[in-house]
Amino acid sequence: MKLEQAIALGEAALLWLAERPELLEGFMAASGAGVADLRAGARDPEFLGFILDFILQSDEWVIAFASHAEVSPDRPARARAALPGGYAPDWT
User: Fold this and answer.
1) C-alpha gyration radius of the chain
2) Handedness of CA 5, 3, 21, 40 (dihedral sign)
3) 3-state SS of 14-73?
4) CA distance 17 to 11
5) How confident is the model at residue 1 (pLDDT cuts 50, 70, 90)?
6) pLDDT tens per residue, range 36-86
7) Cα(38)–Cα(28) distance, integer angstroms
C-alpha cells in the first residue's frame, strides 16, 4: 500500500473513532492523547498509525471500521504496515 493511501485510511479511522465516544475515550486513556493532540495528529502519519494500532486490537473494531470505510478487513493492517513504525507481519 502506498503511503498516501495509508494516510487516507488512517484519517478515516480517526474520524470513525471520533464518532464513537466510548472508543475514543479508551484511545485517549490508553495513549494519553488529549483533544488538541487529536487535532494536531490528524495529518501526522505516525499518529494515524497509533489510531490504527488501537483499532487493530479488536477484530470487532476492525470489522466495524472496514465495513464503515467500505474496505476489506485486511486494509487497516496493511495501512498500519505502510505508516511510520509499522511492520509487515510474516505469516509464512
Assistant:
1) 12
2) negative
3) HHHHHCCHHHHHHHHHHHCCCHHHHHHHCCCHHHHHHHHHHHCCCHHHHHHHHHHHCCCC
4) 10
5) confident
6) 888 888 889 999 999 999 999 999 999 999 999 999 999 999 999 999 877
7) 9
User: In degrees rounded to 5, what are phi and psi of residue 34?
Assistant: -110, 180
**What are the extents of the domains in the chain?**
3-82
Length of the chain: 92
Looking at residue 71, the DSSP 8-state letter turns out to be S
Here the cell at position 65 is 471500521
Q: Model-level pTM?
A: 0.87
Q: Which three cell numbers stand for residue 73?
A: 478487513
